[in-house]
TrEMBL record:
Signal peptide stretch: 1-23
Record field: transmembrane: 412-430
Domain Malectin-like: residue ranges: 34-384
Lineage summary: Eukaryota, Viridiplantae, Streptophyta, Embryophyta, Tracheophyta
Subcellular location: Membrane
Membrane topology: Single-pass type I membrane protein
Matches recorded under Pfam families: Malectin_like
Keyword entries, A-Z: ATP-binding, Glycoprotein, Kinase, Membrane, Nucleotide-binding, Serine/threonine-protein kinase, Signal, Transferase, Transmembrane, Transmembrane helix
Key word Signal present: yes
Top-level taxon: Eukaryota
Annotated Gene Ontology cellular component terms: membrane
GO MF: ATP binding; protein serine/threonine kinase activity; transmembrane receptor protein tyrosine kinase activity
Protein name (Swiss-Prot/TrEMBL): Malectin-like domain-containing protein
Length: 464
């Protein structure tokens, strides 16, 4: 038993090293990691990534504060950059025409000059309104990471922070800008609702905000074990179906096919675990495995379901149905056909749904085999799509937020300018009066003026 445990631990460590090596092999064209507010040349985060200190080439603002915490949760959150006026981070982009991952790190540290727990602000990136009236202190965790995938067609990515009127300042602890792999986001997906199940196109024109990233049946995956430095949480809080479920852990090698999806779409540590339905007798279980989520109303969301057959003993033995909100989204899914008849080879399916309550399910189909695996799921990702106004946060566009900020501050500035103008005008008026009084003051009369001339002086003075 002890030998088995040692071998298992060795095997897990070996897989982690392989995953870490794979993560290190990914080299995006654009790759910026900035530790905001830091004067240090380099800072290692908890996953051993190197963040550079604030570079004046990127920060296009002078009205900022560098803040520092004495008790940060990690070195990356020891410092922050705070703004009392709109400020921009501008990153030069070489890989144009593709999506870029933007991660914004927030930890409301406390400094003698500023209490970031009171901060409320807006964030804009290349015309997309990412956050509006955002208050990091209201989050359940002391550290908040907001992740977006933004299409960038120009030669720069400008991220703007605008303080709201309530707090008067904004802040950020760290920023990541990374070229997204070309196969990370597809242009097509299945639109699924109660009335239709049809293919839609044009998704690459949208931005995406990460809402959930779940490793089904496995452990939490940290950025150290993901080639795109993502975090995948466990599915415990979302999984509803205890009956009929079995967890599978795979000790072999995940086979990424040439021409198929890459490791950047999903890491090994997601595909080597799963939840399955397995019939152990001649009867096929009449159960589904279901995961439930709450997603924001008023927005379309893309749901990605990750599959990798790590449980079947042979190809062409696994057939199952996929459901989205109780609607049949995929009937008789055959992973062998989708992966060129290779076991342990990953595949995903994308679905677009409306916001509100979301439930995704897998279950046996009428082609399922007895005494075999009858359904499987390895991972779930959910992204929010921007609305028609380019916003992820309300029925308002980025330009409107800008105008609102300018109007609010103009309403303060204009009266101040008017008051200064009035004071200047009054000063000029008083100065002119003093000058006029000095030029018309009493003077000595000529000694040769006669009495008769004195009596008619006022009349004579008016003759032209």
């Amino acid at each position: 038993m002890a030998t088995t445990k040692i071998l298992s631990l060795y095997h897990i460590s070996l897989l982690s090293l392989i995953a870490a090596a794979a993560a290190a092999s990914f080299s995006p064209t654009d790759h910026f990691l900035v530790n905001c507010g830091s004067s240090a040349a380099q800072t290692l985060d908890a996953d051993h990534r190197v963040f550079a200190g604030d570079d004046p080439r990127f920060l296009a603002s002078t009205q900022t504060l560098q803040l520092q915490s004495l008790d940060p949760p990690s070195p990356l959150y020891r410092t922050a950059r705070a703004f009392t006026h709109p400020a921009h981070y501008v990153f030069p982009i070489r890989d144009r025409g593709v999506h870029h991952l933007v991660r914004l790190h927030f930890h409301p540290l406390r400094d003698n000059r500023c209490d970031l727990s009171e901060a409320e602000f807006h964030v804009i990136a290349n015309g997309f309104l990412l956050l509006r009236n955002f208050r990091p202190s209201t989050a359940a965790s002391s550290v908040v990471i907001k992740e977006f995938a933004i299409p960038v067609d120009s030669g720069e990515l400008k991220i703007t922070f605008l303080p709201s009127d309530k707090s008067g300042f904004a802040f950020v602890n760290a920023i990541e800008v990374i070229t997204a792999p070309i196969d990370l986001i597809a242009d097509v997906a299945q639109l699924v609702d109660a009335e239709k199940n049809e293919r839609i196109h044009g998704l690459l024109r949208n931005g995406f905000e990460t809402v959930h990233r779940v490793n089904v049946g496995g452990f939490k995956v940290t950025p150290f074990n993901d080639s795109l430095w993502r975090t995948w949480i466990t599915d415990d809080e979302f999984f509803n179906s205890i009956e009929g479920s079995e967890t599978v852990h795979f000790g072999g090698i995940i086979k990424y096919r040439k021409g198929g999806l890459s490791r950047e779409v999903g890491p090994d540590n997601v595909y080597n675990t799963a939840r399955v339905i397995r019939s152990k007798v001649s009867l096929i279980p009449k159960v589904n495995l279901t995961w439930s989520f709450q997603i924001e109303k008023g927005y379309s969301h893309m749901v990605r379901m990750h599959f990798c057959d790590i449980a079947s003993v042979s190809t062409y033995m696994l057939y199952f149905n996929v459901y989205v909100n109780g609607n049949l989204a995929y009937e008789n899914l055959d992973l062998s056909q989708s992966t060129d008849a290779i076991l342990a080879s990953p595949f995903y399916a994308d679905f677009v749904v409306d916001g509100g309550s979301l439930a995704v399910s897998v279950g046996p189909s009428n082609m399922s085999w007895p005494r075999a695996v009858d359904a499987i799921l390895n991972g779930i990702e959910i992204w929010k799509l921007n609305n028609t106004m380019g916003s992820f946060d309300g029925e308002v566009c980025a330009d409107s937020v800008w105008r609102s900020w300018r109007t609010g501050h103009t309403s303060v500035v204009l009266p101040l300018i008017a008051a200064i103008f009035l004071l200047l005008s009054a000063s000029v008026f008083l100065q002119r009066r003093r000058n006029a009084s000095a030029s018309t003051g009493w003077a000595r009369l000529p000694v040769d003026v006669s009495e008769s001339n004195l009596k008619g002086g006022n009349q004579l003075s008016s003759i032209k």
